[in-house]
Input
Amino acid sequence: MQYDASGGGRYDLLVVGSANVDLVVGVERRPGPGETVLGSDLAVHPGGKGANQALAAARLGARAALLARVGDDEHGRLLLASQREAGVDTDGVLVGGAPTGVALITVDPSGDNSIVVSPGANGRLTPADVRAAAPLLAAARVVSLQLEIPLETVAEVTRGLAPDARLVLNPSPPAPLPAEVLAACDPLVVNEHEARYVLGAAAGDTPQDWVRGLLALGPRSVVTTLGAQGAVVAEGHADSLHHLPSPRVEAVDTTGAGDAFTAALAWRLGRGDDLRRAAAFAVRVGAAAVTARGAQDSFPTPEQVDAV
Ligand code: RIB
Output
């Protein structure tokens, strides 16, 4: 594998994570246990939290790269094509080992979704794959991780970062995080569900409670996303806590909005913005992303962010 970080220096953002094909059905309401509901025609989109972030960053203008694994199949080719079309460097996308990951998604009329992921090839992205991609990691200003790949692979990334690189982690879907991973996060990015999972019974009730509790677990900074309410951020200690409100938009489909938010945040942090400024921009990117259907199809250009 040859990683070309020449001619302009380093990658603004390397995303190490999943690539899924999203199988999406619109429903009047999401089914309960044991229930069957009828939905819309099936829509098939490129997705996966990792691939979404890489593409969202590239669409905003970032020099982005993706380290991931897809199957040697039609879904894998669809994902590679969408990344390349957006300008993402896909030298780090490995092919084979299992079928491409698939996400089964239902979206209700309010734009809320439920997602079940079959990890497939994502589950075969190993620590050895990360070590083999050392030049790619060394060339990244910011590295972004989520949890649709094995936890030991995530931990290996935290050990292979360039000394001046910044790590952004969105623990989605949530899982117990080793102390070494938590300590490397700058920031840890969570929504309410993920905050409550990580904090357990001691979570408290307000976003401010969650941010304080999460900071006490060791990350250098924390961002809690609140959907239409924006985000709360803090660096180092809870005194630095700030609420960044979201512009009001008509939500059509929230799928991937968190990925667009995190990608925008990571990119702007790598460009030197402070956390508050980067999160204020990311809130607007997330708001723009909920105004259109699908994950990657909804990710905004800079002009579309300016318009919200
Ligand atoms: O965050 C949205 C993403 O979650 C979808 O694209 C789906 O693939 C799942 O990974």
Remarks:
- The chain has eleven helices and 13 strands.
- The mean pLDDT is 94.
